[in-house]
Write a structure and sequence with these properties.
about 230 residues, alpha/beta, Elongation Factor Tu (Ef-tu), domain 3, Rossmann fold, 2 domains, about 30% helix, binds flavin-adenine dinucleotide
């Protein structure tokens, strides 16, 4: 059957975008965390100027059928052009399904890198807050925070299993909370200095909104926000 003009045009545009705009990398390893929604993916991205990253970036991946999703690289090494992703894949969606489908040796395509405009404050205590989708962001922010003792973080996570894996896989891990009330209560108890603390909020948009509201009510004003989903 003859292809319609619209379909031919779409294919042509798609191939132009694929060849001109999309860059490629490869999957070095995939670790599906046991009994946890998290998938850790190590990548080789030879065209990525990682040495320029001074703010936490996000990479816009082609997750199939013209769907693009942002994921945060962490643990990058500019010399080897490698980095990792941590994807929360509990739900069903093009990004989540893409992460679940990846295997060692696969090719990944990305459109561009964006900045979240979040870079650690030069002298303040850096406090990063979020959920499972923020973990890579927290790790990247910590990577950029020197010295690392100025960094602390807390997340709302799904289970004790994810929490204990996090503690065993990384030498550092955030304070873990399993419901939002506990996270808010922890924030109220910490009594961070308003003048010398900078907050970085990421993850679910409604969560980020409520965290910012609590921080404002406590008189904090150094707050950077980036809602990821929802
Ligand atoms: C700058 C930036 C950086 C990001 N970095 C990361 C990252 O490092 N790791 C990461 O996992 N995500 C990250 N995200 C979120 C990611 O881009 C996708 O939005 C997310 O993976 C959902 O895409 P999807 O295609 O799977 O689901 P969608 O098709 O977008 O959503 C399908 C349904 O699932 C719901 N949903 C989406 N995400 C979740 C979730 N995590 N839990 C429960 N329900 C959900 C949606 O509300 C919707 O109802 C980032 C987003 C931004 C903007």
């Amino acid at each position: 059957m003859e292809m319609s003009i619209a379909r031919q045009l779409k294919n042509k545009v798609q191939s132009l975008v694929n060849h001109r705009l999309l860059k490629q990398g490869s999957v070095l390893e995939v670790r599906r965390w046991p009994n946890s929604p998290l998938i850790e993916i190590d990548l080789h991205l030879p065209h990525m100027p990682m040495q320029e990253w001074s703010e936490v970036p996000a990479i816009k991946f082609n997750v199939g059928n013209w769907h693009f999703r942002d994921y945060t690289p962490f643990g990058w090494d500019a010399e080897t052009s490698t980095c990792s992703l941590l994807v929360d894949a509990a739900h069903s969606g093009p990004g989540s399904n893409w992460a679940k489908s990846l295997n060692m040796g696969d090719t990944v395509q990305y459109l561009k890198t964006e900045t979240t405009h979040q870079s650690p404050h030069g002298t303040n205590l850096v406090v990063a807050l979020g959920d499972n989708t923020s973990l890579a962001h927290l790790l990247a922010l910590r990577q950029l925070t020197l010295p690392a003792i100025r960094f602390t973080s807390a997340i709302l996570t799904d289970s004790h299993q994810t929490g204990s894996l996090l503690k065993s896989y990384f030498p550092w891990s955030p304070t873990l909370h399993f419901n939002e009330d506990a996270l808010m209560q922890w924030l109220l108890n910490e009594q961070y200095c308003t003048e010398h603390t900078s907050f970085y909020l990421t993850g679910n948009k409604a969560l980020v909104f409520r965290l910012r509201k609590v921080l404002h009510s406590l008189g904090h004003f150094n707050i950077k926000v980036k809602g990821f989903w929802g």
